[in-house]
Amino acid sequence: MATEMTCRPAALSEGVVIAFPSGTGTANIERCARELGRRHGADAIEFWRAECRRIADQLLAAGMPESDVGERVLQFQQDVQIELVLNHQNGPLPKSQNR
């Protein structure tokens, strides 16, 4: 078995690293949706812009091409909007379950 592992073709042992910042994960999507659900007006807009900029900066720092960064930020925005809709449909959590 050790021989199989050490004799892999180069295509299997070399690859491309894909940036996946933790900032775009499910927990961050839920956190942003909660924050946007409690903020209004200019405060909500400022928060939203700062979050999207933070994610874009993380992706750029990780070496992701700018064209891909825009796509990932748009996907993040869409995911947060979906979470906001789901939160609205489900109503507020009981006090003991609020995060």
Description:
- Pfam families: DUF6074.
- InterPro entries: DUF6074.
- The chain is 69% helix and 0% strand.
- The protein is globular and about 45 Å long.
- It has helices spanning 2-6, 10-13, 26-38, 41-61, 66-90.
- The protein has a domain at 25-90.
- It is an all-alpha fold.
- The protein starts with a helix and ends in a 9-residue tail after the last helix.
Task: Give the key terms.
globular, single chain, 99 residues, mainly alpha
Q: Layout of helices and strands, plus pairs?
A:
Elements (H helix, E strand, L loop, with lengths): L1 H5 L3 H4 L12 H13 L2 H21 L4 H25 L9
Helix pairs in contact: 3-4, 3-5, 4-5
**Mean of residue pLDDT?**
81
The helix-and-strand class reads: mainly alpha
Query: Uncertain runs with pLDDT below 50, 5 residues or more?
Result: none
Shape, please? globular
Pfam families: DUF6074
InterPro entries: DUF6074
Briefly say what this structure is.
This protein is mainly alpha-helical and 99 residues long. It has five helices and no strands.
